Please model this.
Amino acid sequence: MGRHCLLTTVLLAPMAFPTWVQSATQLSLEQRMELLEKDLRDTKKELQYYKLKQEEDSRKNISSINELSRQTTRPDEVIVTSTAPVSSDASANASSQIAAITMKDLSKFVKEDIGFNYSGYFRSGWGTSSQGSPKSWAIGSLGRLGNEYSNWFDLQISQRVYNEGGKTVHAVVQLDGNVGQQYSAGWFGDNAYNENFLQFSDLYVNTKGFLPFAPDAEFWVGKHQLPMYEIQMLDWKTQRTDGGGGLGVQNMKLGRGMLDVALIREDIDGYNQDLSQSQQLNINTIDMRYKSIPLWDNAELMVNGRYAIANQSDYQHNNEDQNGYYQWKDTWMFGTALKQKFDRGGFNEFSILVANNSLASSFARYSGSSPYTSFNGRYYGEHTGGTALRVVSQGEAYLRDDIIVANALVYSRGEDVYSYETGAHTDFESVRVVVRPAYIWSKFNQTGIEVGYFNQKNKNQFGDAFTEAGYKTTLYHAFKVDTSMLTSRPEIRFYATYIHELNNELDNFSFADEKNDQLAVGAQAEIWW
Model:
């Protein structure tokens, strides 16, 4: 109010000036000086009044904000403060104005009011071995701790662009990639081994409230896929559909559970017999999960199904019939998963999966065994309707308050499937065991050991047997922010790993200097947010 009065006085002064000048012409010089001095004193008094009032208002604001801060701030909250002087002249006498906001409130404001979210994951580290550069081997069977030397990352941004009447629209973009940790330069695509690469794995619009029959469900369109289910210790997925373009509905209430369903395009390159030529095959997959079905206390069930079918042209059919291209065979996968949470913390997930044709071929891989319809985007091999079974148990449990154990156990077998190592009409059987017990020193420190073993036997169509087997022992100490092995990050690990290759008849792999073992030491950081 003071500023407005002062501004009004200044603005009206020119209007009064002519009258004052006219009166002043009838006054003596001494009288004129006396009037000017009086006006100056009045102006200074008015300025001083507004200055003191402004300082008093500032002190009252500070007192109110501090009282509110004492009433609303919890001991574990971080306070963000900002200071601003009332005026250059009063800065020495008046306190600074403080705006108190908790980090939790600020994060909530950004996510809910602005609608922006930024999340991600990456791992990075250093390692060396007793024989030159360290090598990873059979991560998907022996376990990943102390056995991976890549810098992987996922970065996702999401922006809400509409929010009205219970309807929301989000734009979502996710980047995936790898940055090599061998050379200092990490330009994408700058080396023959493709150590540095990048892709947009997600680019889609996600909505909620637009389906009249399922107002609480999410409906999305774009490059996306249904959620992946990972065996974290082995770094591959039991559920995964590589998505090109697609559309889907997630978290739709149906009976006692919730339904996820998606129609996804995942084209592949179909090759000829000598793998010298290929043609793009349009493949569409229907992916369905009926999940979150309650069973008993802290237990829930999921049932899933997936079917992939090709949409081929007459030209492509002719290439398969007459020009030596491998024939596409539709492929399916069916399974179920039971998840049990424990009262003391931790969980266990038990799943059974059955597949045929090329999805069964992915079950036959001893390392990366995610259920793909192709091998690195390349479709080849004689698929004859053979089937494969996979049983998985994974999780972690607290044996005592200071002892935790994580595990990943996988049993697989198949008959008359195409193997990428031993060819068509292969029978196989494999077992993987990874166990990681640790002693919990505190919330921030653990010391443990990870032991891994696997054995896989393939028998080809001629009756020849091939064995791939090995074991790994990793001693480690971890800096952590919570006690859980599988659900808490960030984590920094210092490790020493010994890997011994018992048989290599499927991949003929060897470590440096053609040795069958390797001792490596290193450190690795892993974080998500």
Notes: DSSP finds six helices and 24 strands in the chain. Residues 29-72 form the longest helix (44 residues).
